[in-house]
């Protein structure tokens, strides 16, 4: 169904409308798109997914996927839940990382004002102090429990302030190993150099750089915003440019592996193969603890399971949370997967091919 753009657009519209009108559609959502891409509404509901992935040598990254909120009480509730994910990860090797979005514990408008260095009201200053405190509580707990934690990548107009928070936490907690990881979105043309600069900063300040390398997830929003506000589009001109910088970032990481720990957050088979070949060339074992691969639950199982079977460190992002709150995440997955060249199409063709190979007939 996700290969049909018209159907996805129509379905997304009616789901949003149904939820706004409080129509009884949650059961349908749960049994379809939610079940495909999410582990459950709570950590407990995710336990069966954690076990299933672990049975195949794949770790879980619990991702409490709440976003777009703007109330202090919700930010505190989200922080408390994120602390629970850290505590759960500390009890098991099956959860190698935790993750959070700064915009899940802070108002977007405030983050944007801080990045612009706009004048803050006394209320703004107090609100941002609370944001910093929440980030500190999360990273401090991660350090205390020896749990690695990702700062998720976000839109360019708030990413710089997120970077600053991440580097402050790295300097505090990454002296012996990478506990705090920042995300680098290589579909932006300036990020490869920013990643190299971050490495130099880490070397100069005697801490280990933690990096999660992704291509990016906000391309259309970035292009529209740049056009509307008349500034240079931060997105690479072509996909080939993105692929070039992504693989260059992988090479840089492996060539400086004594001071970098990193995770390839990618569904791109060529980049995974590129990294594996480079590791072999440099004499690094497939299970080197400084190198991880990660994919989203419900996507690219062909990559995840084969990499794990070959001894590489692999984890799946397992989003969870109340259905209403997770819908923005699910709508993004639908948008990403609806094109004929999209991930769902490729996986659908792989499934059809494998069924034919096994003599199970066509779909």
UniProtKB/TrEMBL annotation:
Gene3D superfamilies: 3.20.20.220
Gene Ontology molecular function, alphabetical: FAD binding; proline dehydrogenase activity
Residues spanning the membrane: none
Pfam families: Pro_dh
Residue ranges of every copy of the Proline dehydrogenase domain listed in the record: 47-345
BP GO terms, sorted: L-proline catabolic process to L-glutamate
Annotated InterPro entries: FAD-linked_oxidoreductase-like, Proline_DH_dom, Proline_oxidase
Taxonomic superkingdom: Bacteria
Alphabetical keyword list: Oxidoreductase
Coiled coil ranges: none
SUPFAM superfamilies: FAD-linked oxidoreductase
Name of the protein in question: Proline dehydrogenase
Species of provenance: Persicitalea jodogahamensis
Gene this chain is encoded by: putA
């Amino acid at each position: 169904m996700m290969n049909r753009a018209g159907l996805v657009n129509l379905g997304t519209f009616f789901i949003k409308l149904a939820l706004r009108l409080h129509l009884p559609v949650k059961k349908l959502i749960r049994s379809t798109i939610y079940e495909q891409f999410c582990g459950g509404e709570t950590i407990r509901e995710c336990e069966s997914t954690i076990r299933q992935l672990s049975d195949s040598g794949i770790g879980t990254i619990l991702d409490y996927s709440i976003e777009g909120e703007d109330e202090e009480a919700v930010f505190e509730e989200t922080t408390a839940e994120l602390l629970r994910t850290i505590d759960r990860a500390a009890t098991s090797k099956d959860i190698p990382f935790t993750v959070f979005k700064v915009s899940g514990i802070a108002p977007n408008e405030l983050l944007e004002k801080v990045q612009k260095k706009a004048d803050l009201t006394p209320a703004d200053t107090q609100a941002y102090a609370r944001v910093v405190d929440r980030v500190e509580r999360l990273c401090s707990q991660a350090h205390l429990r020896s749990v690695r934690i990702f700062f998720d990548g976000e839109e360019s107009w708030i990413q710089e302030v997120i970077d600053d928070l991440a580097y402050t936490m790295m300097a505090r907690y990454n002296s012996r190993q990478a506990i705090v990881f920042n995300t680098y979105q290589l579909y932006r043309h300036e990020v490869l150099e920013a990643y190299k600069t971050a490495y130099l900063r880490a070397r100069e300040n005697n801490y280990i750089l933690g990096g999660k390398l992704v291509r990016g997830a906000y391309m259309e929003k970035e292009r529209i915003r740049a056009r509307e506000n008349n500034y240079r589009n931060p997105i690479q001109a072509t996909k080939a440019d993105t692929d070039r910088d992504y693989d260059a970032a992988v090479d840089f990481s492996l060539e400086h592996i004594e001071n970098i720990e990193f995770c390839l957050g990618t569904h791109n088979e060529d980049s995974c193969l590129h990294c594996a070949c480079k590791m072999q060339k440099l004499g690094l074992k497939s299970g080197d603890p400084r190198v991880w691969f990660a994919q989203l639950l419900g996507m690219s199982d062909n990559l995840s399971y084969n990499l794990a079977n070959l001894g590489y460190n692999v984890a799946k992002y397992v989003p969870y949370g109340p259905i209403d709150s997770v819908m923005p995440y699910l709508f993004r997955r639908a948008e990403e997967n609806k094109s004929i060249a999209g991930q769902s199409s490729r996986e659908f063709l792989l499934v059809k091919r494998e069924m034919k190979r096994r003599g199970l007939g066509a779909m």
